[in-house]
Structure prediction request, 278 residues.
Amino acid sequence: MIISNYHSHSTFCDGRATMEEFVKFAIAKGLKHYGFSSHAPIPFDTPWTMVADDFPEYEAEFHRLKEKYKDSIELYLGLEVDYIHGCCDIKSEFFKNINLDFSIGSIHYLDCLGGNNYWSIDGPFGEFEEGLQILFDGDIEAGTRRFFEISGDMIEKGGFDIVGHVDKITYHGRKYKNFGLNKPEYQKLMLTLLEQIKAQNMILEVNTKSLADHGITYPHQTFYETIARMEIPLMVNSDCHYPTNITAGFDETYKALHKAGVRHLMQLTKDGWKKENL
Ligand SMILES: [Zn+2]
Ligand SMILES: [Zn+2]
Prediction:
């Protein structure tokens, strides 16, 4: 099988090493395909997104590395694009003027708390809890429903190739006693979203970023068999911010997916997306 990773960060956003350092590690780890996916610019400043003016430099560095390492690895240019309800998405003006090999659609913020302050679901727990209190009186079930509603909007609007960390709400959600992956209501929300992804013919990533520290992937392992049965196109990505994490959790996840009945993973090639054996 081809080992690949299409979800990665670098010093162009909040990654902790240069693009070239990531490429060197990727080659050392035996990867054959590697995609860069810095956090795309959004309409306000954050410490973790790329600045729009840096995109030409990101693109130029990508082309330099693609040529330099062409005999060892195939490199692809992408961005992880935020869907912020009522604020921005991949249909925004910035994306009309750039060329990417692929894009990931992700949610890190839900609703607006005032000004440019949005409810962060991916940051420190204190921020998550504060937003949940302001917007939903601390009701995690209501906050979870909102997460799936906005995720569904993102999928319906489309325009990107890969769905990033699909159920990221579990990262903080599972710390609340009323949050239950096995509750019928949660199962229904997740199933509806998976059906939307399937209908849009998008690729679902299995994101291993939280596996070592928290024992979970996005989507959660609970859903692997359902996803296999639905034959949703899949890929395994590490969402690495450090070069040493490029393949973190891959072996375990490949095995678990195979056990659940998954037999193919999607690969980006010079001729577009292809199914490869797992
Ligand atoms: Zn993300
Ligand atoms: Zn990411």
Notes: The longest strand covers residues 74-82. The pocket of zinc ion (ligand 1) is lined by residues 80, 106, 108, 164-165 (CB under 6 Å). Residues 4-277 form a domain with the TIM Barrel fold (CATH 3.20.20.140).
